Amino acid sequence: MTHFLLIPALFIIILSKQFPCLVALSRNHFFIGENPIKEFTQKQIAVLSTFVEPDRFSVGQSSRELHLHDISPHLGTLPAGIIWPITTDEVSQILTWTYDQGIPVTPWGAGTSTEGNPVPTRGGLVLDFTRMDKILEIRPQDLQADVQPGVLRKEVNRQAGKYGLFFPVDPGADASIGGMIANNASGVQTVKYGATKDCVMKMTVILPQGKVIHTGCKAGKSSSGYDLTRLFIGSEGTLGVVTEATLRLTGIPSNHLAALITFDDLESAASAVSLMIGSGLEPAALELLTPGLINLMNREKGLGLKEVPTLFCEFHGISKTALLETSDFAKELTESCGATSFKFGIEERDREDLWRARHEAWETIHRAHPGKETLIVDAAIPISRYPEMVLFSQVLVEERNAVGYVFGHAGDGNLHVVMAGDPKDRREWSVLEDINDSIVTRAVELGGTCTGEHGVGIGKRKFMDLEHGQSYELMKAIKKLVDPKGLMNPDKIFF
Ligand SMILES: Cc1cc2nc3c(=O)[nH]c(=O)nc-3n(C[C@H](O)[C@H](O)[C@H](O)COP(=O)(O)OP(=O)(O)OC[C@H]3O[C@@H](n4cnc5c(N)ncnc54)[C@H](O)[C@@H]3O)c2cc1C
To answer: Nearest-CA neighbor of 263 among 195, 315, 312?
Structure first.
């Protein structure tokens, strides 16, 4: 009996020495990268303590554990310490020293990522930006705001709202601007206002060696050389750290109109999406909800919605009359695709309730499946392929008897399937992973992408070659050029 346990244990110890990443992954998503720095030496602690005040540096166990995972099942390697910087100078000094010491650094925003993006895989230092959260200036005449990376998007909107302005990128979570920049986040209004990459004009970035650079400008357009702003946006903290950003704001629309459109089947609903986008209707949001998710939303929020495939959309415009004309046209189009009802002119409170319910879909699914974790599929395809992609995903979930809810930012061809399961139950979880793999692979084959908005992190690296081919090699070369020691957020985007 003793031998029976001893041999596999010895095998695991040997394996973990030789192939730390491999063992880590087989151990329920624990990820231990190569040569992790699990503890700082007393000498290193003494130096780190000189960079910030005592209450902004910690090697305490609980602070470190709080930075071990985002909302995904990807668990990292306990960082050796956390620093909460508040200035660009501090970040520059810290990175100069960590680079010299060969210490891995992982930036942390609000920790709401879904692919292990801010999870430290090699221990080292976590730079937590939650205290670097100032709105430095709002310039209403330019429709711009200068912000620090830790400010949350809802706070930006609270302050910009005083000038009749808003920052239109609205992921479901109240994410930090730094995290949104790093993941190139988007949201329900991206179909009209664009993703983070469209709403950031200028940035201050600290390179892995501690050098401070400024990218972009405050003019509305520029053709001045390589677009470094967009190189860093979506780089997930693998190329450097953002310490300041100039955001492009938008005027809060004076009129909006929300509409709920129901269908008998998913195919008709998805076809209506392509038709509405193709007709130039320019919705400000166009979301697809499936009966399973509506059922949960009804149960939790008492919404009383019909449990059938439904499009929830919104239009923004300069006058009520213009919006009514738009909605007449939308009604005509969707009826031609088989819409069974078209309800518009929804009262303000109902509209807010509906959007809140939509934004809280992930939490609702979580609550409906206590003790389970979620695997969130995030793929995007050309809008014309949306109907077949939705059907493909729904059928796959049903065929494999998985718990999964299909929905998405239909207006930009972004599909989500939130699946619930237990990562410790390898059989159950591998079914969910298979479904994820099949949907993502199909999306890439259809000319789409393995991630519409959540980023690559740890979870999507395996699809990068398939999607990008030689371009992935160029990305690796850029990473090597900017961060030759591979210390900035290691093991993300790249293996
Ligand atoms: C309920 C829910 C709904 C969601 N809905 C959406 C959605 O609709 N659309 C969407 O796009 N996402 C969505 N997400 C995912 C997530 O909110 C976004 O990806 C968001 O951008 C992450 O921001 P964060 O502040 O939490 O960053 P984190 O998760 O802390 O970090 C994200 C990445 O940014 C890096 N980073 C953080 N700060 C900096 C910095 N200053 N400089 C450089 N790198 C930095 C981290 O290292 C990491 O790679 C959702 C998540 C949840 C939980």
So the answer is: 312
